Input
Amino acid sequence: MRGLKQPYRRAGAGAGSPVAAQPSRLPRETSASPAMLEFLAWVSSRPRTYAETMEAWQTSCPRNSVWEDALHEDLIQLEHGSGSAMGEAGVRLTRYGEATITVTAGATGI
Output
């Protein structure tokens, strides 16, 4: 069909993968707030659990929604073990979260 573009693929996404047809995204250096960058660096510094992350970062302030924003922007993910409690789930950066840190560090010379 003319005029239709082929779907973009994330590296490692096979044809049957649910992410295969999603456009690849690269973060822009201006897209992450200082609070978001601090949060992403904190998550990446060592393995974190959901319980630990909520204790350190949960807030009821609608102006400081770094946890919710990071989930919504696909910067972090939860990794559940079979039969494990929610509090024991791991919190990890996604490829986009890692790229956000890399792009920002490169732009600021860190």
In short: The radius of gyration is 16 Å.
